[in-house]
Write a structure and sequence with these properties.
Largest interface: A-B, 51 and 48 residues
Oligomer: heterodimer
Largest sheet of chain B: 2 strands, antiparallel
Radius of gyration of chain A: 25 Å
Structural class of chain B: mainly alpha
Strand content of chain A: 15-25%
Radius of gyration of chain B: 23 Å
Chain lengths: 256, 418
C-alpha cells in the first residue's frame, strides 16, 4: 500500500512538472510589449512651452477649466501661468492670481507697487503637469489609483482614489489638488481624451501665440520633437529625479 | 461657493508671498494625530515588552496595564486616517489593491499583523484569568453573571487547562509574542516616519533619520502616557477608598496609590529614549544647516522665524528640556512626575505638529509661506473632521475604550501568581 502511495506522489509530481513546462514556454506580454513587437511607431507625449511667446493672457487656464470641468471659481487649476518680475536690485516678485485665469491686468504684485524704472526683466511661465517619466505621485499612491499610461501620461482613477493626498504631497511641482466636486486627486492629463482622438489639448488650442505645443517625442519628424532635439531646452526641478517631460524654451534661472 | 464645492484646505490655509495656486495645507490636524496615536500604541507595547522579554522586574506593575492600554489605543491609530481621507468609504482599497511602492500601502498589513500579535499576547496573559472567572461565576444565576460567564467562556477558546505546566507554556508564549512584537511595533511606527521621510518633494521631511526619530519619540510618548494614566487611575482609586472609609464603610480595604518606586524606575527608561530622540533631531538640524542645500534658506526662515516659538520654545524647551530637568532633579515626587509627563506628551505632540504642519509651512516654490489655522468651531463636516473637535474625539476614544476593556480584562491592582 505504502509503495503505491509513493508511486502516486511521484507520478503526480512528474505530471505537474510536465504540465507546467509548456505553460512556462509562453511569455505573457504586456500590451505595450505587443505594440513594440509589431513594429509600429510608439507614442510618448511631450510638451513644449516657449516662455518667450507667453503674454500671460490666461486663455489657456480658462480653456482648461472649461474643458476639464474644474470649477471655474475655485482657486485650484490643472494649468496655471506665473508672472515673474525681477527688479534691478535682483529681487524676485512672483504672482499667479487665480492661476492667471483672468490674465495679469494689474501692475501690482500681491498689492505691491513696483516702480517700472526699477524693473530689470519680466516674463510669464505657464505650468502644467510634467507627465514625468519617473513620477513620484504614481510611486506613492497606496492603492494604485494613479498610473502612467503606455504613452507616458499620468492619470487618476476617480472611482478608486481614496483621497489620502499622498500624491499631492509627493509632487514637487504642485500640479495636483483635490477636485472640489469629486473629492479625489486631480491633475492635468494633457487632455488625454482629446489627444487620444487626434485633437490638440484645450490649452494648446486656446493659446493665441503658440507658446504651448504638444507632440510625440518618439516621432522624430514631429515639429515639437524636432525643436526639443535641436534647440536648448530646459525642464523644471530636475534635481528631484522625476524626469519631467514638459520642456521649456527660454527658461530663466529665477523660475521656481 | 456652494456647499459641495469645497476646496480642501482653503478654509484653514493662509498664503504669504508666492505659493503655487494648488498648494494648501492638505495634511492637517488628523495627520498630526495619526503618528501621535500610532506612537502611543507602539510605545505602550514596547514598555510592556521590556518586562516580558528582558525581564525588567521593575516594570512588572506597568507591564500588564500598558499591554491592555495598547489594545485600547489600537483602533484609535486608524481613526485619524479615516477622518482625514476624502473618500473614507474607500479606505479598504488599501487592503484590496495595495500598491507596494507606496509607504502607506504597507499600513494594512503591518497594522493587522501588529493587532494579531497584541491580541494573542493578551490572550495568553489573561487565559488563566478567563478560566478562573468561568469557574467562579458558575453558580450565579443573575443576568450580568450569566453574560460575563458566557463571555469568559468564549474567550477561553476552549482551553481550560490551568495546571502549572500549561501556565508555564502560556508564559513562554507571552514572551515569544512580546519578542516578535517589539520589532513589529518598531516597524509600525518606523514606517510612519518613512511615510514622511521618503517624500522627496518636501525639504523638511526628506531625511533618512525620520523613521528612527519617529520610533524614539514614539516610545517616549508611549511610556509617558502609560505612566500618566497609571498615576491618575491609582490616585483616583486611593481617593475613592479614602472617601468611602471616611463615610464609615469598613468593607473597603486600603488601596495603595501610585508608587514612587514604580514611577521613578519607569521614568529612567523614558529619559533614555528622550535623550536618543532629541540627539537625533538635533543631529538632523545641524546637518541641514551645515550642508545648506538649496532648501536651507526657506527652512531656516521657517524654523528660526515663522515657527520659532512652536519649535524651540514649545517643543524643545517646554516639551523636552523642562521635563528632562524635572525628572532628573533629586527628590522626585508623584506630582512632579505627573507634570513632567504631561509636558513630555505635549512635547511629542508639538514634534508631530512641527513635522506635519511645519513641513507644509513653506511653498514648494521656496518663495512663500503657508499658515495653518486649526478650525475650532466646526460649521460643516470637513471643519469637524479636520478641526479641534475631530482631534479631541481621537484623543478621548482610547480612554473610553480602556474603561470598557478594563471591565473584562482588569489590568490594575492585579496580584499575579509569581
Amino acid at each position: 500500500m505504502s509503495c503505491s502511495r509513493r508511486k502516486l506522489l511521484k507520478s503526480a509530481l512528474s505530471a505537474s512538472v510536465a504540465a507546467s513546462l509548456p505553460i512556462s514556454a509562453f511569455r505573457f506580454l504586456s500590451p505595450a510589449e505587443c505594440k513594440a513587437a509589431t513594429g509600429t511607431e510608439g507614442t510618448r507625449w511631450g510638451f513644449l512651452v516657449d516662455t518667450n511667446k507667453c503674454v500671460g493672457c490666461g486663455f489657456c487656464v480658462k480653456a482648461c477649466k472649461k474643458e476639464n470641468e474644474v470649477p471655474y471659481e475655485a482657486p485650484v487649476t490643472r494649468t496655471w501661468v506665473e508672472r515673474y518680475v525681477v527688479t534691478k536690485n535682483n529681487k524676485l516678485h512672483i504672482d499667479s492670481p487665480l492661476g492667471g485665469r483672468d490674465g495679469f491686468t494689474d501692475q501690482k504684485i500681491r498689492g505691491e507697487e513696483i516702480d517700472p524704472a526699477e524693473i530689470a526683466k519680466t516674463f510669464f511661465v505657464p505650468k502644467l503637469c510634467n507627465q514625468c517619466e519617473n513620477p513620484a505621485c504614481v510611486q506613492v499612491c497606496p492603492v494604485g489609483a494613479t498610473y502612467q499610461t503606455g504613452d507616458g501620461v499620468v492619470l487618476v482613477d476617480r472611482d478608486w482614489c481614496i483621497g489620502c493626498g499622498y500624491c499631492i504631497m509627493a509632487c514637487p511641482y504642485g500640479a495636483r489638488f483635490f477636485h472640489p466636486v469629486h473629492k479625489v486627486a486631480e491633475k492635468c492629463t494633457f487632455c488625454y481624451h482629446r489627444i487620444s482622438n487626434g485633437q490638440q489639448t484645450a490649452c494648446v488650442e486656446a493659446c493665441p501665440f503658440e507658446a504651448r505645443r504638444i507632440g510625440n517625442l518618439l516621432d522624430q519628424n514631429d515639429p515639437v520633437t524636432k525643436i526639443i532635439m535641436t534647440e536648448r531646452v530646459a525642464v523644471l526641478k530636475d534635481e528631484y529625479g522625476t524626469k519631467p517631460q514638459v520642456f521649456y524654451l527660454g527658461l530663466d534661472r529665477n523660475v521656481r | 461657493m456652494t456647499e459641495e464645492l469645497i476646496v480642501h484646505g482653503l478654509e484653514w490655509t493662509d498664503k504669504l508671498l508666492f505659493v503655487y495656486p494648488n498648494e494648501f495645507i492638505y495634511w492637517s490636524i488628523q495627520i498630526v494625530m495619526y503618528p501621535y496615536m500610532t506612537g502611543l500604541v507602539a510605545g505602550a507595547f514596547v514598555l510592556s515588552s521590556l518586562y516580558h522579554v528582558f525581564g525588567q522586574k521593575d516594570l512588572k506593575e506597568m507591564a500588564r496595564f500598558s499591554l491592555v492600554f495598547s489594545l485600547a489605543l489600537l483602533p484609535v491609530a486608524m481613526m485619524p486616517l479615516m477622518l482625514h481621507l476624502q473618500q473614507p468609504l474607500r479606505g479598504m482599497n488599501v487592503m484590496f489593491t495595495p500598491h507596494f511602492t507606496s509607504a502607506i500601502a504597507a499600513f494594512g498589513i503591518v497594522f493587522s499583523t501588529y493587532a494579531v500579535i497584541v491580541l494573542t499576547e493578551i490572550w495568553f496573559v489573561y487565559r488563566e484569568y478567563f478560566v478562573q472567572q468561568t469557574i467562579a461565576l458558575k453558580g450565579k444565576a443573575d443576568l450580568v453573571s450569566t453574560f460575563k460567564r458566557t463571555l469568559y467562556h468564549v474567550l477561553t477558546l476552549g482551553a481550560y487547562d490551568i495546571n502549572e505546566e500549561a501556565i508555564a507554556k502560556d508564559k513562554k508564549a507571552v514572551k515569544i509574542m512580546a519578542a516578535i512584537g517589539i520589532p513589529v511595533a518598531g516597524f509600525l511606527h518606523g514606517y510612519a516616519g518613512f511615510i514622511f521621510g521618503s517624500v522627496k518633494a518636501n525639504a523638511l521631511w526628506m531625511s533618512p533619520l525620520m523613521p528612527v526619530i519617529f520610533i524614539m519619540s514614539a516610545v517616549v510618548s508611549g511610556i509617558a502616557l502609560c505612566m500618566l494614566t497609571y498615576i491618575i487611575i491609582m490616585e483616583w482609586k486611593k481617593l475613592k477608598a479614602t472617601l468611602a472609609r471616611g463615610r464609615g464603610d469598613e468593607s473597603v480595604t486600603t488601596i495603595r496609590g501610585a508608587e514612587i518606586e514604580v514611577i521613578s524606575k519607569t521614568s529612567r527608561y523614558l529619559i533614555m529614549f528622550l535623550v536618543a530622540a532629541i540627539s537625533l533631531e538635533i543631529l538632523d538640524l545641524i546637518f541641514r544647516g551645515y550642508t545648506a542645500m538649496k532648501s536651507w534658506d526657506i527652512l531656516r526662515s521657517v524654523m528660526f522665524e515663522e515657527d520659532f516659538v512652536k519649535i524651540f520654545i514649545l517643543q524643545y524647551g517646554m516639551g523636552n528640556a523642562l521635563p528632562f530637568l524635572m525628572l532628573m532633579l533629586p527628590g522626585l515626587t508623584i506630582r512632579r512626575t505627573a507634570v513632567a509627563l504631561i509636558l513630555v506628551l505635549f512635547g511629542v505632540f508639538m514634534m508631530r505638529w512641527n513635522v506635519v504642519i511645519g513641513g507644509q509651512a513653506f511653498s514648494l516654490s521656496f518663495e512663500g509661506f503657508m499658515h495653518y489655522h486649526l478650525p475650532i468651531i466646526p460649521h460643516n463636516l470637513e471643519t469637524f473632521k479636520e478641526g479641534l473637535a475631530g482631534a479631541l474625539t481621537v484623543i478621548a476614544t482610547p480612554f473610553i475604550l480602556f474603561w470598557g476593556i478594563n471591565k473584562i480584562l482588569p489590568s490594575l491592582n492585579v496580584v499575579e501568581s509569581d
